[in-house]
Design brief:
The chain has 11 helices and 11 strands. With about 290 residues, it is α/β, with parallel strands linked by helices. Strands 3-4-5-9 form a 4-stranded parallel β-sheet, sandwiched between helices. Helix 3 (about 95-110) links the parallel strand 4 and strand 5 (about 115-120). Helix 1 runs parallel beside helix 2 and helix 2 (about 50-60) runs parallel beside helix 3. The chain is globular.
Length: about 290
Amino acid sequence: NSVTVLNRGTRSIPGTQQLVADRNNADAMAKIGASCEPFDVVIDLSCYNRSQAQLAWSAFALHAKRWIHLSSIAVYAELSPIPSEQSAIGSTAVWGEYGINKSDADAFLLAQSGVPITILRPPYLYGPGNHIDRETFVWKRVLRGIPVLIPGDGTAAVQFLHVEDLAQAILAAAEAPSSDTAVYNVAADTGVTLQEYVRKLAGICHADDTGIAVRSADAGFAAREYFPFGDHPCCMDFSLIGRALHWKPRYTFEKGFAQTYATYDPSMLQECALDLTVEHQILERLRQS
């Protein structure tokens, strides 16, 4: 199969044909769409708002036999009880503008017709090369014996998905018989608490668990100022995709994060610069309380 990639052209992607355009530029997208060949499937991995969804749809829908859109758990209006695909979207305050905009993109696509659309909604993604400082945030601290401050009582449950499992879910959606619009939650495991997250990551790098639960009132800072996640649940019911597409994750938490950790140089994690200003202030508040 041939693969065509649309991006800004800042670097070449070996083995692909590149279409160069800024997806936020309506004229550039229209020009690309007017000259491209038909596609068996269009996979949109970087759509963050309604405008981007509209521009992509206008450019490529007429050329696509199937459309796959990467959404997010952040689109759901409520996180408790855990959302299923039938749960209302509209986002919740904990996700801010990100969730609202992702929800708007979903709403636009759900209103379209003419091309089978599959929407995939994962929770937190991870894997080698993750540019978001989440698992590395913990490893950088536990490897040095630095406290990892965990928001709340540490019992908020969160789910993850390895990027290779996401890729397999996308492939399963692409190969499934054509259908009308379908939405699938896609995740791995049943979730871990924030305290378990820190403890398990510490075990993977053979370090002591330095996690300390900090009540919001004692912290004096928003959770995301001193920890990768907020003090709220992030879990979903993902049973439907297994039944409908016969997909199941290959990576458990331990296997996936161990594989991810193996791609890092531990000395880099131990020696890179850290800004611990907020964490030091919180620890001082705890000492004085």
